[in-house]
Design a protein that fits this description.
five-stranded parallel sheet; Rossmann fold; globular; four-stranded parallel sheet; disordered N terminus; 17% strand
């Protein structure tokens, strides 16, 4: 129980709901107790439904309550999906064969099944997708309601692809229900940790270099043309970042940084800081199962593991969530992953593409410069709390 309370990253059930909740026109039912409902309803900010199981349902079975809810809301949506939770799964309640509910998507994704990513993929595999082999566009995947960069990523991907005349088809998972019936044969990744099973993989847009490489490859398999304007934009962006980083390094030492988040995002941020800052990466704290990297990587899905990692080698800069900021309040901080508390975020910020790399380095430079200025002021004679006295 202590580890569940201490966990920083959601479970498989929330992963499944975050996928299904991004499809406009699909009603999502959480088959479980109020506790199972209020967590995803609070963090995902989508209309969700719940059977709100009580003790009596656990004893006598909960299928009747689920059927009743399905009948009540069926006419409001083009399709319904039910996400099973721990309690009905443990008592063995069979909800896969309910008369009159054959068209309802059933996702058996209780929290004990595994990680957030596994629940997301399980739900994505269950979506009613049809590949249209005549579609000249591409799909996007890796979009999640929990990701603070999700909608910004969609916008940046659409902008970049439009320069080549390549339309976006289905977005897994942020599109209309009817878009799933006309998915394209190829799919671009915005977050490799949340890859979908739909369409042939066509590359990633996570970073300027990968974006150029991916768009070049896409123009060979679609009728688009490689946009020279994108190449010039990328070159200008890298020059701007390099100049700003050089100005910072003339005044301050390269920062040491600890980076936390889903592995693919965090590993990308590590590479960016190494490229422009020659930064020392003290640790890549991965919320999920890590992949291959030359950076020091460790599991960081609980508050105790985060405390341990940061206490071993305190960094100058933290890129992560409010939990890392709380554990190491003296470091410069860049908001990067769930949860982000005590701050207002209204803009749709991308992490992918050209604008994503510009935005990440802008946040890093401003955070480090602010922290550097505060440190210099604090070291002046006769100062207190960072202000001249």
């Amino acid at each position: 129980m202590r580890e569940c309370i201490n966990a920083l990253w959601p479970c498989a059930m929330t992963g499944a709901v975050s996928c299904l909740g991004g499809i406009a026109g699909m009603g999502v039912i959480i088959h479980g107790s109020s506790g199972c409902y209020y967590y995803p309803a609070t963090v995902l900010h989508r209309e969700l439904h719940c059977t709100f199981l009580i003790e009596q349902d656990i004893i006598f079975g909960a299928a009747d309550r689920l059927r009743t809810l399905i009948r009540e809301i069926r006419d409001r949506y083009g399709s319904l999906a039910v996400v099973n939770t721990c309690t009905p799964a443990i008592i063995g309640d069979d909800i896969t064969d309910m008369p009159g509910c054959e068209d309802v998507i059933i996702i058996d994704s209780p929290g004990f099944l595994g990680s957030y990513e596994s629940g997301y993929r399980l739900a994505c595999e269950s979506l009613p997708v049809t590949i249209d082999h005549d579609h000249e566009g591409v799909n996007l995947d890796g979009i999640s309601l929990l990701d603070p960069f999700a909608q910004g990523n969609v916008m940046e991907a659409e902008r970049i692809l439009s320069l080549s005349g390549i339309p976006v088809a289905a977005v897994f998972s942020s599109c209309r229900l009817e878009d799933l019936g006309h998915a394209a044969p190829h799919t671009l990744s915005t977050n490799p940790d949340l890859s979908s099973p739909w369409g042939e993989p066509a590359g990633s847009l996570l970073g300027i270099d990968l974006t150029l490489q991916t768009v070049s490859g896409l123009t060979e398999i679609t009728r688009g043309e490689y946009p020279e304007i994108l190449q010039r934009e990328a070159e200008r962006a890298e020059e701007r970042i390099s100049r700003a980083a050089d100005r910072f390094l003339r005044r301050f030492d390269p920062p040491s940084a600890a980076i936390f988040g889903e592995f693919s995002y965090a590993e990308y941020a590590c590479r960016v800081l190494e490229k422009y800052f020659d930064a020392t990466i003290t640790v890549l704290g991965s919320r999920n199962r890590p992949g291959t990297t030359h950076f020091r990587v460790a599991e960081a899905s609980s508050l105790s593991s985060v405390r341990d990692l940061l206490s071993r080698d305190p960094p100058d800069l933290i890129i992560g969530s409010s939990f890392e900021q709380m554990v190491c309040p003296g470091a410069a901080f860049v908001p990067f992953t769930y949860p982000l508390r005590g701050m207002v975020r209204l803009r749709d910020r991308p992490l992918i593409g050209i604008q994503g790399e510009l935005g990440l380095m802008e946040d890093v430079l401003n955070a480090c410069m602010d922290q550097g200025v505060r440190t210099e002021l604090h070291d002046l004679p006769g100062t207190e709390s960072g202000f001249p006295g």
